[in-house]
Amino acid sequence: MKKIYDEILLAKAQNRKLLAILLDPDKIEINHLSVLIEKIKMSPATHILVGGSIVESDKIDELVLLLKEKLTLPIILFPGNPSQISLHADGILFLSLLSGRNPDYLIEHQINAVPLLRKSNLEIISTGYILIESGSQTAVERVSQTQPMDRKNIELVCQTAKAGEYLGNKLIYLEAGSGAKLAVPLEMIKAVSKEILIPLIVGGGIRSHQAIQAAFESGADMVVIGTAFENDSNFFNFR
Ligand code: 1GP
After folding, report:
1. What whole-number percentage of the chain has pLDDT above 90?
2. What does pTM read for this prediction?
3. Is the CB of 228 inside a 6 Å radius of any atom of ligand 1?
4. CA distance linking residue 66 with residue 61, whole number of Å
5. CATH match for 4-231 among 3.10.450.50, 3.20.20.70, 2.60.120.200, 3.20.20.390
């Protein structure tokens, strides 16, 4: 059963835009989680992503279990490395960092994740992950020890996204990095969304409702919001 991905494809076909809230277990206070959960329930979020660049695994299990108990939204892992896999989630973005040339993040971590994934019921969603230069160094850049792609070189980013699609990725994720100064340029979202047939996720540095809307209008199928919601749990009170 490929429920999460089928839903994403259906939403794309119907031009229904998707909104994911990214929860970083290192930044969430478990004591305050019930308040956050209420805010999430009132928000337009369609998916929850759980992960971060440097998270300890026991915190992930705890957070995922609590979220599953209280929310009906799909809980999808967005792991920085294989230690961040919780068997309690619904799915996992099985990422390959296509913008970088560090073999660990292209294939090594993925190989190491197999023993755990084999015995899981997680829906595994192959995702081409592309880091875009965003004005200053981000955690993804630091942890993966890779260079982000030039934000002006739209053609090369399009080629990279298309290569991901040809390789069989089910999603492309254009990432400016959590808390990025500059979000992914709208021109780039437009060009990549025209280039690929598979759904496009965009995240990093998006911190206003106008910016979410602009990303959607430019062709993002799913927008990811992390920092804006972390900093202000009333961020989605615009409904
Ligand atoms: C990071 O794209 C996500 O991986 C979300 O970024 O924290 O800047 O919203 P923000």
Report:
1. 90
2. 0.97
3. yes
4. 9
5. 3.20.20.390
